[in-house]
Every structure is written in C-alpha cells, then in structure tokens.
# Entry
Amino acid sequence: MELGIQGKRALVCASSKGLGLGCAEALAAEGVDLVMNARSPGPLEESAQNLRKTYGIQVVTVAADITSEDGRAQVLEAAGDVDILVTNAGGPPPGMWSDWDREDFIKALDANMLTPIALMKACLPKMIDKGWGRVVNITSQSVKAPIAVLGLSNSARAGLTGYVGGTSRQVAEFGVNINNLLPGIHATDRAVSLDQGVMKAQGISLEQAQAQRMAGIPAKRYGMAEEFGAMCAFLCSDKAGFIVGQNILLDGGGVNSTM
# Structure
C-alpha cells in the first residue's frame, strides 16, 4: 500500500532501539526523512546510519534526554518543521503501591505525560498552518487494562490519554490527526527488564518468566517491533485521515475487551 508520505519529515523520540526504532524504520521505508532521538549517542548513530544506508533517506540524530527541558529544546531546535511526531519515552519502574512517593509520581508524569504534551504543543501550530500533520503517542495497554505493578505508568499514561482525547478533536479540522498506540508485551529491552522482575520475585529462570508471561497472551508470543512500526506508519499516512483520538491496542489479544 502506498501511504502517501514520501518526502515528509518525522521526529521519532527514543528511537535508537525497541518500539521507537520499529516506528522509525517503518517510516524510513516509506521515504520519510527522520529526526531521531535517544540518550546514548553510540546506539543512536548506529541505528541512524543503518537507516540511511538501507533507505537512502536523510536522518538527523540528537542525543539528549527528551524528558528534560534542555533535552527537548535541543531536539526541537534540530527537528525544526516536522510533519510527523512520534512521542516515546521509557516507562517508570514497577513496584507496589506502598513503594511510591510524590516525587516518584512527578518523575513519571514528567516523562510519560508532560513530555509528550510539551512536544505536541511545540509541533502542532506548524502542522495546523500547513493543514496536515500526524502525531502518534506510544503509551501502553495499561491505559485500557491497568497493570497492578505499573501504577506509575498507569497513572501518567492515563493522564496523557485524557489530554489527547480532547486535543485531537480540537485540531482534526485542520488536517492534523493525533492517536495513541498501546503496546502489550513486545520483544524489547523493556520486556526483558519486566521479565527479570518476575524472575527475581518468583525465583524462577528468565526463560520460565518469559514463558509464564507469554502464556497469558492469546497469541502466545511477544510482539515484534516491526509489527508495531507498521501500524505507526499507517496512522501517519494519508490513508488514516479519518482516524482521530483513538487508542489502538497492539497486544496479541491480551486485553480482553470489546471496546
């Protein structure tokens, strides 16, 4: 399918690996020039160079912490006028309700709610002026089905979902579409980190922890970054102009819900 976005320019956050890289590669395959961001310059530039060689696109890299004010300023200055924004940031650590204090929630809100909001506020005006734009926020399946040990993430991402619900409907008339992608467990470093938490808590091997978590997914496997990226690219396409303010699950059927 021709997605109609060749020559567009996209800012993809936290895109040196994992789901962010999956999104960056899917956009690159459609001929979209990229501004890629991550905290570690080595892996970031390596991923960017692979995309340059494979797809012949322009890629600008910015090694900075997107969740910090200074980091966002660096990224936005380098990005300039973008047509597509993909927000992404690592999730806060798991734990119990009794583990978290106010500062833990502030950090989670800064990273997973206020950072994407700040990026949208910076990028939306130019998209509106052009009459075309796409924003995809990578959130979590926990928005629809809260995960007990991810209370910090549940809270911050639910707040972002509420913001997008209203904002997306305010900008849709200008040809700007905002949607959220809700990943379940994918084969990324984040999954390994959570698998290790299960391993330590239950005194089992990493393989056993993975098998236990896969057993709870109807697809009986973890998702792949390539699958996730393909959906992101579609939401960023001309074909997705009538999709507004949606929360789209990519979880292998893990959330048992009809709505």
In short: The beta strands are 9-12, 33-38, 59-63, 84-87, 133-138, 176-183, 247-250.
